[in-house]
Amino acid sequence: MDHTGFSVASLEEAIQFWTEAMGFDLARQGEMGGEFLREATGVDDPRCRMALVTAPNGYPIELLEYSTGSTLGETPRSAGAIGAAHIAFTVTDIRRAIARVERAGWAVKGSPQPIPAGPRRGTLVAYISGPDGITIELMQPSV
After folding, report:
1. What is the distance between the alpha carbons of residues 120 and 100, in angstroms, rounded to a whole number?
2. Order of strands across the sheet with 60-66?
3. What is the percent of the chain where pLDDT is above 70?
4. Would you tell me how many other CB atoms lie within 10 Å of the CB of residue 38?
5. Alpha-carbon separation of residue 102 from 7, 31, 53, 106 (angstroms)
């Protein structure tokens, strides 16, 4: 995989979430638009501010604030909604990760639960919600 991208309503709020709550580093920011982006994305008038944040292991998340984003709809609020997606991260201490997210002012969707069966049995999982309803799964492998 190369990266994961999310369209966001507020680039500043998204950067704050990913750096403060998730512990990512801000790698770069910029702006883009024009014919290339319109042809590549199919978005009319695609003026866009962007930021790239990187996980401690270097994995990049691209945050995109399109000038027309507020007119194009929102992320489904439920992890079970058609079209909803999530991204999962492995953590060493799920309760510490959740506490960091809550201290930064973001929501936890449930409580850590062990996977009951299968190859990941015992792995603790919990979903959190970042800006714009982006769902993130935290996974603490069993020892």
Report:
1. 25
2. 4-7, 60-66, 48-54, 25-32
3. 89
4. 14
5. 22, 31, 20, 5
- Per-residue pLDDT tens for 68-95? 765 566 666 666 665 677 899 999 999 9
On the CB side of 87, CA atoms within 13 Å amount to 16
The residue ranges of the chain whose pLDDT is under 70 are 69-83
Residue 142 main-chain phi, psi, to 5 deg: -70, 155
Residue 85, helix vs strand vs coil: coil
Q: Could you give the angle at the alpha carbon of 47 between the alpha carbons of 43 and 48, nearest 5°?
A: 100
Instruction: Decide: pTM greater than 0.90.
Output: no
d(CA 108, CA 136): 10
Q: Is 36 exposed, middle or buried (0-12, 13-18, 19+ CB in 10 A)?
A: exposed
